[in-house]
Design brief:
heterotetramer, A mainly alpha, B alpha/beta, C mainly alpha, D alpha+beta, B: alpha/beta, Beta Polymerase, domain 2, 5-stranded mixed β-sheet, two-stranded parallel sheet, 7 strands, C: mainly alpha, 69% helix
């Protein structure tokens, strides 16, 4: 710590009115072990220096020693709120490399799971950012409704958070017989809850005062910093992989890309709220039409990718997730690189938080929806 | 531009670079001397306009190291993979592209941290995840007797 | 009059006479002070713990939870267990704090509610001090607490604490104004600052109804400003847990932390009690015009129960605020005060003066 | 004058948004029987996990203390974390043939990530996921379990 301060003092020089504050690694609003070294003047933020790596788990190194089906379960632990999307990304990458066509049923199941996962993630985001802004009750309402989705997950695949449901060539289990009924019940219930969420926070005058015009990220900056997902779309950067590079059953459904243009905290909030409606509509389009068939194609006992480099992009709840696999033809990958949305998003914070107050920084962080293992990997 | 046009355009403009259509995307391997000028051209040329650096990652090969850039143009929607090799594995160094795409600043810090590739002219090349005394864990010859158990 | 049934004056009077017949006047005074002190000490401790329990249960109900359920039936003994835990905890004094001020701050904070509580009439004859400037005393004394908060923030030698302390300073200095002004509005209506007289004047109708429009406006301003003054959500910037971890009391532990905690709840009680006294008729029962039967039934309920029922009503309202709204930002809090509450207040004083002058009140 | 009206409407709109928010919380406050929390250790008897719930790896035995595990070691190979160790021994069967059978199926619960790969890959369905989720132990050694019961045999008719 002393060295870092020394370095900052010598390189960046702290002016007489400025002081340094460590926000984190243990701080209620950093949602994990993220440390932001803030340079403040009074309450005004002058510089944000993110220090990451407190829970770096070396997943990229670990994958080099694992076979392809084995490494999927590690991606659960990166962005644990979009674990199924991460699983799917790796599976799609492997399937593309092997030129395996998965059954239609699998595509539908995967897409429904994606959207349920997105809803669960956005619910957690909604309640956690409500808590960041001081509305503690919101936290419990969000978690209460998220339980229903987790129950659906648990019934079908046995896990609530780290699903490990996608496997190369399909999914691990067939859908539970109750699945469709449960999803429909949930959607019916949840459609009544979102207006409640809106009344509680989105329409609230205090919340609007806190968020409108705060922390504006322009479209150019969003592209330059690689800010994707709802955060990027709020700035007008059309970056929805589901729309531009559709995978699984996304080509079959109609949905709008939730977009904003202002790029402030409120727009980021609104885009995510809109995205919940879009997810619901996608699920509604698919849930009744799941085709019969196999839930997985038979793969070889030992999966070996052909020599070469493969890149697969999917849209997680946070933005664009990329898997870059370099294969040398063996059963273990030569190198796996994960392009995680949180990593790129995080570093745009310094750019937009300058000149705002600490309370605004917390609001900005809340609407960036960071998951720290996603950054640290 | 379609992939073929893109490859043709690039190979005409840069005969030194090796351009081909890979398994998924058009790929181009550029020399490390021309990397920065080439990248600047990719960003600023209106017909190319690669303004979004999707991903930047390093790969450790037996005799050299490679940095792979995945680029996309948000206006033309075309995609390009740029690869650049270092001279050797002992003192790997490339020019930074963080002045072209700000997001590269942190990707390069990550690559420096985990693979030990130095990026020239990077204005803030500190280690990102690990502390300074740590080795470079993503290199293939990385040995850690304490944390890594080999079976 | 049925009210006199529950008057505590004869009891206190007889205690006083019993004491003074046996000892010198000076000693009597000292003994009486001690008794009152002990009673208030017990009251603050017990009521503070009770409020913590109530807050937990109320917030749990808002959040569809059950709240504490383990210690005792329905978790009734939970706060007592917590208090015992806090008593037994180590008092950590961080390195390089300003030791004297650091230790002084919790005491200043806890003294304020003790000073203020003395003028509050809990029921007929249950009032320790009856000044002719009671309201003025309350407004004057209640602003001392901010010194404790500022000291705690400064002396902790922690940047979060310092920011919290400074926020609290700016906030309380601003909102004192609104609290004072809304009380002044009612003083204009009452024509006195003596607390017992203000209560007595509301025998035939609470000031909230007597003073109609200006009184209602003043009531709302008072509740908002009072919430802000007690540092409760949505104005809990001084501790703002998602921004400043715990604000000014980050570095306090054990019983010193409990002092801050207790003071917050007793301040909540005092603000609610002041609102009750000035707007809702103190311990006076609810009377409706000329419905003699209804009024007679209301009179059967003792004044002290009326008082606490009203106080809990307002406490519930303030808790409701806290568990619904997001937190404001410091500049917005000041904007709310200086751009909205203060002009409304000034206008309201004018309105009230007009109403009183023209005799438009009941 | 216009700005004055704006000021007033702003106040009323703001207050209305606050009141409608308070109505939501009040709705839940006054329906306390709709609590969503459960009293966990008390409701243990009624608590039913979903049948696919991944609690721990177990090896079911039938009433004759027989299991289906052949000791082939595929689960050990498929486990990403090394939480399964198979120790096999060779015996001489009644017909005089040499045969490798399972000696100990060791399962390190502390290393398991419940990825389900071992169960999926098991050719004889010898191991399944159990429903127990209360995995707190005083001692780390209790988390290393031997899945086959002492003295257990392989079931008749299980193919090697």
């Amino acid at each position: 710590m002393a060295e870092i301060i020394e370095k900052l003092v010598t390189t960046d020089e702290i002016k007489a009115d400025e002081y340094l504050v460590n926000m984190g690694p243990q701080h209620p609003s950093t949602h994990g072990v993220l440390r932001l070294l803030l340079k403040l003047e009074g309450e005004i933020v002058h510089n944000v220096d993110p220090h990451v790596g407190y829970i770096h788990s070396g997943i990229e190194k670990m994958t080099e020693a694992l076979s392809y089906p084995q490494l999927i379960h590690l991606t659960d632990r990166m962005d644990y709120l979009s674990s199924h999307m991460n699983n799917e990304a790796v599976c799609l990458c492997i399937e593309n490399a092997l030129q395996v066509e998965v059954p239609e049923r699998v595509k539908y199941i995967r897409t429904i799971f994606d959207e349920l996962q997105r809803l669960a993630s956005h619910q957690l985001w909604w309640c956690a950012s409500g808590m960041d802004l001081g509305a503690l009750t919101a936290f419990f309402y969000g978690l209460r409704d998220r339980e229903d989705i987790l129950d659906i997950f648990e019934e079908t695949c046995g896990a609530r958070l780290t699903l490990n449901y996608s496997v190369p060539g399909g999914v691990m289990f067939d859908l539970h017989p109750n699945f469709q009924r449960r999803v429909k019940d949930f959607i019916k219930k949840f459609k009544k809850k979102i207006p409640e969420y809106d009344t509680l926070l989105t329409g609230n005058v205090i919340f609007q005062e806190r968020s409108k015009g705060v922390g504006i990220l322009s479209k150019e900056d969003a592209i330059a910093f690689g800010v994707t997902g709802p955060t990027g779309r709020a700035s007008g950067f059309s970056c929805d992989i589901r729309k531009h590079h559709p995978y699984s059953a996304y080509p079959l459904v109609n949905f709008n890309e939730a977009m904003g243009s202002d790029g402030d905290t409120f727009t980021r909030w609104k885009v995510r709220m809109d995205e919940m409606w879009e997810s619901i509509s996608i699920i509604e389009q698919l849930i009744d039409n799941i085709p019969e068939g196999d839930y997985a194609v038979k793969m070889k006992g030992v999966i070996k990718l052909p020599e070469g480099e493969f890149y697969q992009r999917v849209e997680t709840a946070r933005g664009e997730f990329g898997v870059f696999i370099v294969s040398d033809g063996k059963k273990n990958p030569y190198r796996v690189k994960f392009r995680s949305p949180g990593f790129s998003n995080l570093f745009a914070i310094n750019h937009i938080a300058k000149g705002w107050k600490i309370a605004d920084l917390v609001a900005i962080m809340a609407t960036f929806d960071l998951v720290i293992p996603d950054i640290d990997r | 531009m379609t992939n073929e046009q893109l490859i043709e355009h690039l190979s005409n403009a840069y005969p030194d670079a090796v351009a081909k259509i890979g398994i998924q995307y058009p790929e181009i391997i550029v020399g490390k001397e021309m990397l920065h000028a080439f990248m600047l051209k990719l960003k600023s040329d209106p017909t190319l306009a690669f303004d979004y650096l999707v991903c930047e990652g390093g790969v450790d090969y037996p005799t050299y190291m490679q940095v792979v850039y995945h680029l996309e143009s948000t206006t033309h929607k075309h995609f390009l993979v740029v690869k650049c090799n270092t001279e050797n594995r002992e003192t790997p160094a490339l020019d930074t592209v963080s002045d072209i795409w700000p997001t590269a600043e942190f990707h390069e810090r990550e690559i420096f941290d985990l693979m030990g590739i130095v990026f020239n002219n990077h204005h803030d090349l500190r280690r990102l995840f690990l502390d300074d005394s740590w080795g470079f864990p993503l290199r293939k010859d990385y040995k850690d007797d304490i944390h890594v158990v080999e079976r | 009059m049925a009210l006199e049934k529950y008057d505590f004056t004869p009891i206190t009077q007889s205690i006083h006479e019993g004491l003074i017949s046996n000892m010198s006047p000076l000693l009597t005074t000292i003994v009486e002070w001690t008794i009152i002190g002990v009673i208030y000490l017990l009251f603050v401790a017990v009521f503070g713990l009770l409020l913590v329990y109530v807050e937990r249960k109320v917030c749990a109900a808002f959040q569809q939870r059950m709240g504490p359920m383990r210690v005792g039936p329905w978790g009734l003994l939970q706060t007592i267990a917590d208090f015992i835990k806090l008593l037994m905890k180590e008092l950590i004094t961080p390195k390089s704090v300003d030791k004297f001020l650091y230790n002084l701050a919790p005491f200043i904070v806890i003294i304020v509610p003790f000073l203020t509580i003395s003028v509050i009439p809990f029921g007929p004859g249950l009032q320790a001090l009856d000044f002719d400037i009671g309201i003025f005393f309350v407004t004057a004394v209640s602003s001392v607490g901010v010194i404790g908060v500022l000291l705690a923030g400064w002396a902790s030698n922690n940047k979060y604490s310092l920011i919290g302390g400074m926020r609290s300073g700016a906030q309380i200095v601003s909102y004192e104004l609104s609290v004072g002004m809304s009380l002044i509005t009612m003083v204009i209506l009452a024509g006195t600052m003596q607390v017992s007289q203000i209560v007595a004047l509301q025998r035939d109708g609470w000031f909230l109804f007597k003073g109609h429009i200006p009184a209602i406006i003043a009531f709302f301003v008072f509740v908002i400003a009072g919430t802000a003054e007690t540092n409760r959500g949505p104005f809990d910037l001084a501790e703002a847990e998602s921004e400043l971890t715990a604000g000014f009391h980050t570095e306090y532990s054990g019983i010193k932390f409990a002092f801050f905690f207790l003071a917050e709840y007793i301040n909540l009680f005092i603000v609610s009690a002041m609102a009750t006294i000035v707007f809702l008729g103190g311990w006076m029962p609810f009377h409706f015009g000329s419905w003699e039967g209804f009024n007679g039934v209301m009179d059967l309920i003792p004044g002290i129960i009326w008082f606490f029922a009203k106080v809990f009503g307002i406490i519930f309202l303030i808790m409701w605020f806290k568990w619904t709204f997001p937190r404001l930002r410091i500049d917005q809090i000041l904007t709310l005060e200086w751009k909205y509450l203060l002009p409304i207040n000034l206008f309201n004083i004018l309105l009230m003066a007009t109403v009183v002058l023209l005799g438009w009140h009941w | 004058m216009n700005s004055f009206f704006q000021y007033i409407t702003e106040i009323f709109k703001g207050v209305w948004s606050l009141i409608s928010g308070m109505r939501i919380t009040a709705k839940y406050f006054f329906t306390p029987w709709k609590h969503v929390t459960q009293q966990y250790p008390e409701n243990r008897d009624k608590l039913v996990m979903f049948d696919r719930f991944r609690g721990e790896v177990i090896m079911p035995h039938n009433e004759n203390n027989e299991h289906k595990c052949t000791g082939c070691g595929i689960c050990e190979l498929n486990c990403p974390n090394g939480s399964i160790e198979i120790i096999s021994k060779s015996i001489v069967t009644d017909e005089g043939k040499k045969k490798r059978i399972l000696d100990k199926h060791i399962y390190h619960l502390s290393m398991c990530t419940f990825c389900n790969l071992c169960i999926k890959s098991c050719p004889s369905d010898a191991i399944i996921m159990g429903q127990k989720f209360e995995h707190a132990y005083w001692n780390r050694t209790s988390m290393t379990k031997v899945l086959n019961m002492p003295g257990s045999k392989i079931m008749e008719g299980i193919k090697e």
